[in-house]
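In the laboratory, one determines a bound structure by crystallizing the protein with its ligand and collecting diffraction data. In a computational setting the workflow is compressed into a single prediction: the sequence and the ligand go in, and a structural description comes out. We illustrate the idea with adenosine-5'-triphosphate.
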Amino acid sequence: MSGAQRFRPGATGRFRLGRKKGGAEMILTVTLNPCIDHTVKVEGFAPGGTNRILASRSDAGGKGVNVSAALKNLGEDTRCLGLNFRQNGAFLTDVLRSRGIDCDFAEVNGALRTNIKIFDAATGVMSELNERGPEVGPEALEEFEIILERCLPGASLLILDGSVPPGVPAAYYRTLTERAAWHGVRTVLDARGELLLEGIRARPCLIKPNREELEEAAGERIVSRRDAVRAARRLIGLGAGMVCASLGRDGALLVTAGEAYFSAGADIPVRGVQGAGDALVAGMSYAMVRGLPLPEILRYGVAAAHGSLILEGTQMCGRGDFMKMLPRISAERMD
Ligand SMILES: Nc1ncnc2c1ncn2[C@@H]1O[C@H](COP(=O)(O)OP(=O)(O)OP(=O)(O)O)[C@@H](O)[C@H]1O
Ligand SMILES: [Mg+2]
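The predicted complex, in structure-token form:
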């Protein structure tokens, strides 16, 4: 079986292979629930007491935005689509533009939600306070869908990543996956709960649950790698083409109906775990649009995740680190 055939299990003949000649196609990412991550550093966090802030920073965030940032660093053409908020959304678009990342957001009344992260330097523990964000109405979704329809014909892949704001239906990722399929574009889905289970029914080519998300979706406890493969195949039975089960420090698996690969990763100094899953999605997508075979898709993903893990905060993998990591990452066949 050729590499190009291998990475599209379950796909029909309508889906395009790899990229168009000349590489004109781009990877689209969707962020429906962007946010501002406000991180403060304290020494010995005392709940109920007065805490002195040693350092603080604000970053524009969102899972799809992270994936686009990693893809851009790897040298891949990408565009961020989704929803943004009128009141302070310029914070997000300015950051993207300064990094040379194209974006096209439907604008919604209200402000970007803020997620406060309290990092206790004494214990290394991060406490998070996440806002729910403003309600989104059907007009905003219609505007977003018009943008998506305009962009899909030039896309090599659609990546749906993260939660959705209040007002967005639980079956929304399913709808978007179906729209992409209509244009012959495959979808990668990284979400949890109903968003994931509903989305799977539209047959995304890849989903990327972490251990907790996989346990929740498959309704099974996962202790061993074998458990993860079994749970992944349960989701394949529901419609997913491939499942990448990311197991944090225990590595990652890439599972299809007939094959399973495992990558333990490499021994690296871990400086920031946030966004490792998004970098994993970016690396795998980068390999998929190049028509690489399954073990390579997994290796590229894990190399990108490692390139992100060695950087503090949510910073995404750079191309130099990715190239250095790649030879250190292996993927072994499991069955
Ligand atoms: N502490 C760690 N040590 C080594 N590798 C790690 C560690 N954490 C993550 N990884 C690598 O990064 C991959 C993705 O991480 P993880 O499973 O935590 O994703 P995630 O929970 O989806 O993350 P997020 O949603 O915050 O981006 C793992 O499969 C593994 O290869
Ligand atoms: Mg994740």
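DSSP finds eleven helices and 14 strands in the chain. Keep in mind that any predicted model is a hypothesis to be tested, not a measurement.
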